């Protein structure tokens, strides 16, 4: 086994210095600022600060609106991750069956990922607007009283659909790469043995996609918690009646709308702890079932 050595001790640190600087500037410094601000109480103009210790955390953790945002975030994150990954896997499997024009279909599937989250939200809002939406009219013809601007469950369904659609392309790319890495000889041998297409998928293809699936599970969890802010802001604004107000959107509401900087900072710290704990849980327990062949 060949071992790489560096001519002097400074070179390894110089090589990782750019990454360390990026992490320090864009993660550790903002995280430290948020942690310090969560211990303060500021006026609406930011002219006076008072150290209050953990008072902001106690107020946040006992706030019914924050507890509601926890529940909303859990439902939204689970549904978004599930539908975006399931649909992407289905499309990737079907795309692999295409013999002619495979590259063209893959390109069509990738395009939606280039759409900004806020634009994706507006597209779905226009399509399902209860007054003039092109896809809201068929729902009314079916007798469905469709109004996501007033119905909390319908609003949740709309933001989940928009967020899932935005993320399908990203998942599709990785699932296609994972499918291409599976040896065709395994599938052909199973087909010769008489295994049906469904049995080949669940006994060979899906288990071999475990590393890709685990990676996407982590990425989609973080995406649902953070990167969907633009979609929720464009579609529902957290309403109706806070039915779509996720944790990250409540941080925005309290900090930038209501100017409660201490509470907003405390919520951001709690959200950061939740994400770290969720990621650690996934790596500790879910990764055990992942087989890296």
Automatic annotation (TrEMBL):
Keyword vocabulary terms for this entry: Cell inner membrane, Cell membrane, Membrane, Transmembrane, Transmembrane helix, Transport
CC per GO annotation: plasma membrane
Transmembrane segments: 12-31, 70-92, 104-127, 208-226, 265-283
Sections of the chain in a coiled coil: none
PANTHER family: BLL4140 PROTEIN, SN-GLYCEROL-3-PHOSPHATE TRANSPORT SYSTEM PERMEASE PROTEIN UGPA
Assembly notes: The complex is composed of two ATP-binding proteins (UgpC), two transmembrane proteins (UgpA and UgpE) and a solute-binding protein (UgpB).
Protein's UniProt name: sn-glycerol-3-phosphate transport system permease protein UgpA
Organism of origin: Cereibacter azotoformans
Taxonomic classification: Bacteria, Pseudomonadati, Pseudomonadota, Alphaproteobacteria, Rhodobacterales
């Amino acid at each position: 086994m060949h071992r790489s050595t560096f001519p002097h001790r400074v070179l390894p640190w110089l090589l990782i210095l750019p990454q360390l600087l990026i992490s320090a500037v864009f993660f550790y410094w903002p995280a430290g600022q948020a942690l310090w601000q969560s211990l303060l109480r500021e006026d609406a103009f930011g002219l006076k600060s008072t150290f209050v210790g953990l008072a902001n955390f106690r107020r946040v953790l006992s706030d019914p609106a924050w507890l509601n945002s926890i529940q909303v975030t859990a439902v939204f994150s689970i549904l978004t991750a599930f539908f975006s990954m399931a649909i992407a896997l289905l499309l990737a499997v079907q795309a692999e069956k295409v013999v002619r024009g495979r590259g063209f279909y893959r390109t069509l599937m990738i395009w939606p990922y280039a759409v900004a989250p806020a634009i994706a939200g507006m597209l779905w809002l226009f399509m399902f607007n209860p007054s003039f939406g092109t896809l809201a009219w068929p729902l009314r013809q079916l007798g469905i009283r469709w109004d996501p601007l007033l119905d909390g469950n319908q609003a949740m369904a709309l933001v989940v659909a928009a967020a899932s659609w935005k993320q399908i392309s990203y998942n599709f790319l990785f699932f296609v790469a994972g499918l291409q890495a599976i040896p065709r000889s395994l599938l052909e041998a199973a087909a010769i043995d008489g295994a049906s297409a469904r049995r080949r998928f669940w006994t060979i293809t899906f288990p071999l996609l475990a590393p890709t699936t685990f990676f996407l599970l982590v990425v989609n969890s973080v995406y649902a918690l953070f990167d969907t802010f633009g979609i929720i802001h464009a579609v529902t604004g957290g309403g109706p009646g806070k039915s779509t107000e996720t944790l990250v959107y409540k941080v925005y509401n309290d900090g930038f709308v209501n100017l409660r900087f201490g509470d907003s900072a405390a919520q951001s710290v709690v959200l950061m702890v939740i994400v770290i704990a969720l990621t650690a849980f996934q790596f500790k327990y879910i990764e055990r079932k992942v087989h890296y062949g």
